[in-house]
Each structure stands twice: as C-alpha cells, then as structure tokens.
Design brief:
alpha+beta; 5 strands; transmembrane helix; transmembrane
C-alpha cells in the first residue's frame, strides 16, 4: 500500500505541473480568441477566419505597442488607461498589484544589485530578498521615509503568494549575482526548484 501511495504521489508531482501549465496556456489562448475573433470575423467574414489568427494578431499588437512606446508621447498614451485605473478606488489596488508583480518578475526598474542576502540583526539567519526602494528617489513616499543608510527589501515567502517588506541597514545585506525573477522562483519553490546556472562550460 505504501508503495502504491508513493507511486501515486510521484505521478502527481510529474503530471500536476504539466496539467496546470497547459490549463493556464489554454485559458490565455481562449481568452484572446474570445476577445479578438469577433473583430476579425467582422472584417474578413467567417469563411476566411482561421483558428490562431486572433493569437497571431495579439502578438503583432504587442510588438507594435512595445515598439511605439519608445516615443515619450506615445508611451504616455499607452500609460493613460493604467493611470485612470490607479485613480479608481475599486481597481487601483488590483491593477497596481498586478502591475507591480509583472514589474518584479520582469526585473523592470531594478538595478544590477537588486537581489541581496539579508542577515537578520542578532542572528546568523540569512534570507534572500529583493531591494525595492533606496533613499533619494524623487516623488516616492517610501523612499522619503528611508535614511541614507537604510534600504527597503522585499522577502518573498516559499509556496505562498506573499512576503514581507522590511527596512534594513545597508550593512545587513550583501549583493547576490541573480536576477529578481530567478530570486522569486528560487524562494517561492523553497529552494527545491530546478534552477540552473546560466554558465556554459568551456
């Protein structure tokens, strides 16, 4: 019986990540298809529409938006819907959180020394964190609260969508050669993830 349970658990650990990944990709594709297909059918007609055109057009739109954002004026136009959402009480928290998560995972607005190893005061315990704010940043409320010798560090939690934001002395941290996205993956998986060094053998 124990061997059967062992095989079952092992099978689940292999299948569940695949199933969840496929389900997420399927949801993403179906959502895009649902939104853009009626537009293409109204333009081309149902007889000329083929599956996958909606997703392909979405990729093209994303490329165009990303390319046009190079110009400051156009970038302000693309940022306008987000700015409106940030002023709406019901959507501000949701949009702001999702936007911050994407910025965090993509490494946007982070310097090369964003991932640090934090040593807790009075202890030998060390935690992997991501520097989110330093003192001296203009028009930033948290930055204005920081002394010159303190920084704000986000400490993600393992197997949980959450974490702690701590203000620690600069002397309590040491820089790690790691991207914020890799740090998030490593800590959220509790160190059990299959992280690989991006170093090729000579």
């Amino acid at each position: 019986m124990k061997r059967v349970i062992h095989y079952l658990l092992k099978g689940l650990t292999i299948l569940l990540p695949l199933v969840m990944t496929i389900a997420l990709v399927h949801w993403f594709l179906v959502t895009i298809e649902t939104w853009l297909r009626p537009i293409w059918e109204s333009i081309l007609g149902t007889q000329y529409y083929f599956p996958g055109l909606a997703f392909f057009s979405f990729v093209v739109i994303a490329l165009i938006v990303g390319y046009s954002a190079r110009w400051r004026f156009v970038n302000k136009i693309w940022q306008l819907p987000g700015s409106i959402m940030e002023k709406m009480p019901l959507l501000r928290s949701l949009y702001g959180t999702i936007n911050d998560v994407f910025d965090l995972m993509s490494g946007k607005s982070f310097s090369d020394e964003s991932v640090v190893l934090v040593t807790l005061p009075g202890a030998d315990v060390k935690l992997i964190g991501i520097v989110t704010k330093r003192s001296g940043e203009k028009n930033d409320r948290l930055s204005a609260m920081l002394d010159d010798d303190h920084i704000a560090v986000f400490l993600p939690m393992s197997y949980n969508v959450g974490g702690y934001m701590m203000i620690v002395p600069r002397t309590s941290v040491e820089t790690l050669d790691m991207s914020p996205a890799d740090a998030m993956q490593l800590t959220i998986s509790g160190g059990l993830g299959k992280n690989r060094n991006n170093v090729e053998d000579d």
